[in-house]
Design a protein that fits this description.
- The protein is an all-alpha fold.
- The relative contact order is 0.04.
- The protein is elongated, with a radius of gyration of 30 Å.
- Helix 1 packs across helix 3 and helix 4 packs across helix 5.
- It contains five helices and no strands.
- 74% of the residues lie in helices and 0% in strands.
């Protein structure tokens, strides 16, 4: 896709994110700390000397928090879109899961519990290669339950016949 519509901030944040995660940035930061430490005796380890590094690192850290959050938001959105595409393209996947990132924490916890049940269903299956959507897993479980109920009822009838 074209980068024609990127704002100046977005271009800067993309560049800064790539740069700050590079070996060059780490080497530069290390060099600054080494130069600051070596300059200690020259400035008699004064309060001003300490204030320089403290202030500098505080300001950089403060700005980096916002830059990292911006990059994280963008990456998260891109991943969600890719996952939504995979869900939408897969016939066996439940479309109910598309855009669930907008749900509340409580709703996500409920879905998490449901997927834990799905994992329990999968553990009960003999075929480790089978996979289910939530709907398919529910139908599969209902079918298993109906089969169990039918067998149980047959067993109860056989017990009744034996006791008569």
């Amino acid at each position: 896709m074209a980068n024609l519509h990127k704002s100046i901030f977005e271009k800067f944040s993309d560049w800064a994110t790539k740069f700050t995660g590079s070996p060059h940035a780490f080497i530069g930061a290390t060099a600054i700390v080494v130069i600051w430490a070596v300059s200690g005796p020259v400035f008699n380890y004064s309060e001003t000397w300490q204030l320089v590094i403290n202030t500098g690192t505080t300001i950089i850290t403060f700005l980096m928090v916002f830059l990292i959050q911006k990059a994280q938001n963008k990456d998260s959105k891109a991943i969600q879109i890719k996952l939504n595409e995979l869900i939408a393209a897969n016939d066996k996947a439940s479309n109910r899961i598309v855009d669930i990132e907008d749900l509340t924490e409580k709703e996500l916890d409920q879905l998490h519990c449901y997927y834990e049940k799905l994992a329990d269903f999968a553990e009960e299956d003999d075929d480790i290669h089978s996979s289910h959507s939530i709907d398919a897993a529910h139908r599969n479980q209902d079918s298993k339950h109906a089969s169990f109920r039918k067998k149980h009822e047959e067993w109860l009838r056989s017990q009744e016949k034996e006791s008569n």
